[in-house]
Amino acid sequence: MEYLTAFGIGVVTILAVIRFYAKVTWKSFKEDVDMTGQTAIITGANGGLGKALAVEFAKRNARVILACRSLIRGEAARMEIVADSGCRESNIVLKTLDLSSLQSVREFANHVVNNEERLDILVNNAAIFGKPIFETKDKMDLTYQTNHFGPFLLTNLLLDLLKRSGPGSRIINMSSFMHDMCALDLDYLKPDDFGVFCATKQTGRWKRKPEILLYNNSKLMNIMFTRELARRLGDSGVTTNCLSPGIVRTNILASDKRIIVMIVMIFMLVVSKNTKEGCQTMLHCALSRSLKSVSGKYFTNCQEDAGVHEVAQDDDACKKLWELSELYTGICAKPEQ
After folding, report:
1. What 3-state DSSP class applies to 247?
2. pTM of the model
3. Residue in 144, 188, 215, 328 annotated catalytic
């Protein structure tokens, strides 16, 4: 019994030290920025980091459009954001957006373009995790479409409005540290092809499950999209950057009841950030004056991080992903300037 008590005390002590070290190394966004007169769109804003970011924008007097798949959850979040921020209720607007449907993306973008005078910040935050290979009605995998192809289409459809609202408009893409655990082959993006890749093309001793690989790959695609978008934006006055928020306690794993996931979530309680702490790098990328002309970069902990996967630094691969994304989403390619 004494050994067990000593062991328990030791474990608790180690976890406390880990927690303390984690908290003292996390950085926060400190700049005092007034967003009066600015409009921002945040996808997936009905919970987690999207909702936390909406509160922070609202506190700074921004007009925030919550782009949510569920109007019921979105309306509940809207009222909570108003209460938590103390802003005017009219400053928080709810609109329907399902990134797994190209039709929904087009309808949302069309409504924004026709009804909004300006758009200063677009935050592509929404994502799904842990979903098996599933073909959508648009003939793409559900995870890839929600996490990359949908945001790709949305961004392109809103680019003209962002440009007219600038200079200084920003596009923020949410990635993840898990992008570095990817195995992306651009010739195997379609659902059936990806299934073949998982079964026959994975290298190494350990084969990753398709649902994990889909998420990791999609987060790499977010960085590749950001790099190529920055190149194409050039000196348009619009910048784009992407980021990893670190390990954050959100509900993205809430539906996964596997024992291993539950163990991971318990460990995350020790080393993870809450959503307010987790959205600090999002705030940095969206508002920092030091990033006024910075574009195409990857950030962690409120600072630039050059440690991205080698594929995300391959300009040819990034261009190929862009061209495939144009093809899959039905965007007519425009000649480069």
Report:
1. coil
2. 0.88
3. 215
